[in-house]
Amino acid sequence: MNDMLVLSIETSCDETSIAVVKNGRDILSNKILSQINIHNEFGGVVPEIASRKHLEAINIVLYEALKEANVELNDIDLIASTYGPGLVGALLVGLQYAKGLSYALNKDFIGVNHIEGHISSCYLEHKDLEPPFMSLVISGGHTILLNVNDYGIYDKIAETRDDAIGEVFDKVARKLGLSYPGGPNIERFAKFGDEDAIKFPKSRFEDDTLDFSYSGIKSSVLNYINHCNLKDVELNKEDICASFQKTSVDMLIENVEKAFKRYGGKKLCIVGGVSSNNYLRNRFLSYFKDIEIYYPSKELCTDNGAMIASAAYYSFLKNGKSDYTLNVSSSVKF
Ligand code: KG4
Ligand code: ZN
Predict the structure, then answer these.
(1) 8 phi/psi in degrees, rounded to 5
(2) Is the pLDDT of residue 11 over 80?
(3) Domain carrying residue 162
């Protein structure tokens, strides 16, 4: 089979990213323009601003991605873009841009589910990785555990019933006056804290589900901080971050362990923004001695175009191109 070059666009949240990837595995370029500094002053992503910034950036990011990959638009075989889930206005910029390019250049177009992109990020990093494996997707918008039976064939095992883990890291950080995105700041403060200092409760369900829940721990950390503030007790941010981080990771480990007992398997890929957390990585590596654990590099953990190209490649081989009638979907299910 001839080589296939995929040009992929990711604009679902606050990163404008365009990549060129060969055969779903080899990154020729992966340009990421983050808007974090712009949204920082608002304490989170402002959807309207995100869309406008994507529009301003997308031509430049495309130019940079092609230049670094040393290819021209005519060399591209397939044009891909995230169609959801994400912010509607932000998604629209990337998806419509991709359709326009595809139409103008007479190249095939394909829409990609953002979560499938995160799952595929491990293919870029670990060239020999093949399904089946279990995947834990932990990001600002998602907390999902699933079996990847084959390329594009998924069996969902569990997901959060309320907040996503990254969202809660961001909310706790905000309450502590730490800047957005909160995850890396929580991790930084936690290094100097005692993880056993404060007992935050773990969520439990009555049934035998493996689903996650992060709203309980969120409320209890926020209540703890409010309580300290009311009583004029000085906050020990390091202890709060360390204790919160430990309990959050404990909850993931407990359910993943149950999932392996229930479904079997030998490989676990942990992906999404929260998977760049070193404490979490080390906890999983030291706990699951008999399971091979894979992480993408940090750049591929958070949102990026290359992961979309990898997912696009395997989806195209299986199901072919998408129709131009494909629209964005903020909450498309996985
Ligand atoms: O995958 P991603 O870039 O976007 C979504 O699809 O949501 O993930 C962003 C999330 C944010 O909530 C951010 O706080 C979190 O990933 N994050 C982290 C760390 N780095 C990023 N959470 C914990 N520890 C980190 N080091
Ligand atoms: Zn993401």
Answers:
(1) -125, 145
(2) yes
(3) 131-296
Q: How far does the centroid of ligand 1 lie from the alpha carbon of residue 71, in Å?
A: 31
Report the nearest atom of ligand 1 relative to the CA of 272.
Answer: 1
277 shares its domain with 170:
yes
For residues 53 and 95, give the distance between their C-alpha atoms in angstroms, rounded to a whole number.
15
Beta bridge partners of 160: 212
If asked whether residues 55 and 139 sit together in one domain, one would say no
Structure tokens at 231: 């009583």
3-state secondary structure of 147: strand
Residue 54 Ramachandran class (φ > 0 left, ψ -120 to 50 alpha, else beta): alpha
- The CATH code of the domain that includes 282 is 3.30.420.40
The answer to whether residues 241 and 92 belong to one domain is: no
Helix (H) or strand (E) holding 267: strand 267-271
* Site of tokens 């993931």: 252
| DSSP for residue 38 | H
| Same domain, yes or no: 242 and 175 | yes
DSSP string, 96-144: HHHHHHHHHHT-EEEEEEHHHHHHHHHHHH-TT--S-EEEEEESSS-EE
The model carries a pTM of 0.96
Nearest in space to 308 (alpha carbons), one of 120, 180, 166, 133: 120
Query: What's the pLDDT tens digit per position in 168-207?
Result: 999 999 999 999 889 999 999 999 999 999 999 998 888 8
253 shares its domain with 149: yes
At 43 the pLDDT is: 80
Q: Which residues sit opposite 112 in a β-bridge?
A: 82
Whole-number Å distance, alpha carbon 303 to ligand 2 midpoint, is 5
The verdict on 113 and 166 lying in the same domain is no
Angle at alpha carbon of residue 51, lines to 48 and 54, rounded to 5°: 150
Query: Measuring from atom 1 of ligand 1, which residue has the nearest CA?
Result: 273
Domain for residue 219, yes or no?
yes
For residue 106, being part of any structural domain is answered with yes
Ligand 1 centre distance from Cα of residue 230 (Å): 30
